[in-house]
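Lab manual, section 2.4: Encoding a predicted structure.

Procedure: take the sequence of the chain (343 residues), apply the prediction step described in section 2.3, and record the output as structure tokens. A sample record is shown.
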Amino acid sequence: MEDEQLKFIDLFAGIGGFRIALEKNGSECVFSSEWDKEAQITYKENFGEIPKGDITKIKENEIPRHDILCAGFPCQAFSISGKQGGFNDARGTLFFDIARIAKYHQPKVLFLENVKNLAKHYHGNTLKIILRILDEIGYDVYYDILTASHYGVPQARERIYIVAFRKDLGVKYFYFPKQTYKNVYLKDILEDDEKTKDFIINRSDLKFWKRDETSALKPIQIGQINHGGQGERIYSINGHAITLSAYGGGAAGKTGAYLVGGKIRRLSPRECARVQGFPEWFKIPISKSQAYKQFGNSISVPVIDLIYQQILKVLRSDKTGQNQILIENNELKRDYSLQTTLK
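Recorded output:
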């Protein structure tokens, strides 16, 4: 399987974060789906194709055969009836479309991403149903919550990642990648002042209480605008960006406010791309407001990249190589128990 090119599909594709990471590792996208028209514009500009529309209206047999199913799916309420259970609990949700496609095509791997809150959604029942459904349709499932700040991305983005292997592959171990704790800070990815003049926030109601000197792999709040509500907190560029958001108000809604060169400003769309780990070649063909929405809805590409490398290690290992991978993964497991949050 070493020389086989893996094929993947990109569901709820957004602007193609999954695709960038998987293509970087030599895999081929054979199908994409995204209903948002503005996101389709960005996707086409970067990948040369318009994703198919609403996945709920696309039949399973219209989707090509594939090895990997990727999806950053929306989190919705499930039916917690306690009577029907399993596959039927997913009906009416977008996860049902992932399940029906996976059940029909039986790809080797399902690679899913969602908000951290999925683990607690409906008192944990939503995740339990997802895990039960994936088990019922033939998958061994692994999941973890990872923080982008720990993987070379200057953004405090926590997300749950789910990796499911088809049971007949016999994959009985999988560990998510070890944190890199790379010393990358927001100041390292900023655009020149000339390009960011439009993002400066001129306000008289600014308050500071902390010197802008300490470095850390997390956001460092040093002040506030007005009452310091959402979108009104000021952070140091010696730390990381807050989690980008597709929605939210305030003077610096969606990106947060930062002290840059003695001035307070939001991040630019290109800086948002960078704190999500998008490459410099990635084109941003839409309006600023749409760019903020799209990067806020997207994924941290380097995190996806590292997880996919772990998936490839497992898929490409023969029996003689499995012991070495098991040793590596056991080391990762041991490291997990020793990890502490960086101050």
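Check your result against the sample. The mean pLDDT is 90.
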